[in-house]
Amino acid sequence: MKACFGVALRAMAILLLWSSVGISLNLFSANAIPWVYVPPPDLEISGVKIPLIDEKEARKLLDDPSVVFVDTRTAKDYAKSTVKGAQSLPRKEMEERFILIQPLLPEEARLVLFCYGPQCEDAERVAEFLIPMGYRNLVIMSPGFPGWEKAGYPVDSGPDKELGGKQPDPTSATGGDNSGPTSGPSTGSAQSTRGDK
Fold first, then answer.
1. I want to staple 55 with a disulfide (CB 3.0 to 4.6 A). Which of 11, 17, 121, 147 is the partner?
2. Could you tell me if 140 and 39 are in contact, meaning their C-beta atoms sit under 8 angstroms apart?
3. What predicted TM-score, i.e. pTM, was given to this entire model?
């Protein structure tokens, strides 16, 4: 018993010694490993710089009529709950879904892409898809929907939520072919097509 205790004590001493050496070297290194992960301020995808923002910065953009939130999570998760007014463009269905929601995504709009959080790459893959289509004003909300929801920011939720949020308004300048009914004023702004309720 004493022999096992002695071996464990020596192993612990060796572990502490080398841990302190490693920590000391890291503290004085020019390329030290940070104690807390700090994400980069932006990504470069296909030659386009895409800023990474947190949920607080994204919340400031929610009421801006030139901004469209794009949920890149699965259609099932989108249907459960999403950022208020967000459009659904799931990574695994993006080519098929893009055709349906393209009228809601003007090329000049700022698109805020989000998915499940910092480890999720769905928003990045959707950005890679959108860039060749002419979209350049993209940002990614790094904390994703979990960060947004945890902060208590506005969401759309419920089983009656249709995929893709509000459908294009045939009377708006950005949605439809203008062959639908024309009763009522049309602002033609991105606000009228964002799915706000």
1. 147
2. no
3. 0.66
